[in-house]
Amino acid sequence: MATFWIILTAVLVSSACAILGCFLILRRMALVGDAISHAVLPGIAIAFLWSGSRDSLWMLLGATVFGLLTVFFIQSLQAGGLSSDASIGIVFTALFAAGVILISLNAQHIDLDLDCVLFGEIAYVQWDTLTLWGMDVGPRAVWMLGITLLVILVVVGLFYKQFKLCAFDPALAAACGIPVVLFHYVLMGLVSMTSVASFESVGSILVVGMLIVPAAAAYLLTDQLGKMIVYAVLIGVASSVGGYLMAYVMDASIAGCMVAVAGILFVLALLLSPKHGIVLRYVRRKYVAR
């Protein structure tokens, strides 16, 4: 049963991250998920100091607030003329440092394990269960990630055309009357929500890896956004299942193996892609040279 919950949790994470990752790749903001997963640390620390409890609700509220603040600060710096990567680097390092300072100043008064809170471990998801009306309804992470994935599917499904146009041509979207800034914040809010819902349970390496690698691999396989999203989700699911099997055989980190399998699939896409593949381009050059 533990295997089922671990794989289900990983599939939910990879699916949610893969969908959002496609839009992040197109907007050249792939590292926003990494920034958010680190920048929420002061929110976690403040929530703990305020409530005196490690209850997940308080942690999530604090982390969500700082996740959205991270998005706002990044956007503000970009509006001020800084490049996307510079803005992301400045914001997440500054907020992460603030979180470390808060915890170090109060370390003697609190019992806050950063490895657990920030980096998580997917192997333990089955132990943190949710109880409703006195009945155990399964791991808390499955419910949180399931709801998160449902929200992403609903929002992206309802406003797919708007997200698509904003990703490919923001100027045209604005000319058509689409509120580009609003949809940017909605997308970043979904990324923040996914990161916050995931990192405590599965670890930041899995969240960041699944936000970037499956979408990047799918980007090499097709030029159509709809197909790209489907391919990214399939690659994420395959990485989750294959990574768990690799971890079982090698007795290694589950999250690390899942991201490693995703990396292997990306390399295969890079080599064998019908249009952008290195192998195919080499064969074409050889054929033309003849």
Task: Describe, in plain words, how this protein is organized in 3D.
Strand 1 and strand 2 form a beta hairpin. By secondary structure, the chain is mainly alpha-helical. It has one domain (2-127, 138-289): ABC transporter involved in vitamin B12 uptake, BtuC (Orthogonal Bundle), CATH 1.10.3470.10. It has a two-stranded antiparallel sheet with strand order 1-2. It contains 14 helices and 2 strands. Helix 7 (140-158) runs antiparallel to helix 10. It is a multi-pass membrane protein. Belongs to the ABC-3 integral membrane protein family. It is found in: Cell membrane. The chain crosses the membrane at residues 6-26, 31-50, 56-74, 86-105, 141-160, 172-196, 202-221, 228-247, 253-272. It comes from Paenibacillus silvae.
**3D shape:** globular
Q: What is the CATH architecture assignment?
A: Orthogonal Bundle
Order of helices and strands: HHHHHHEEHHHHHHHH
Strand order of the largest sheet: 1-2
Number of helices: 14
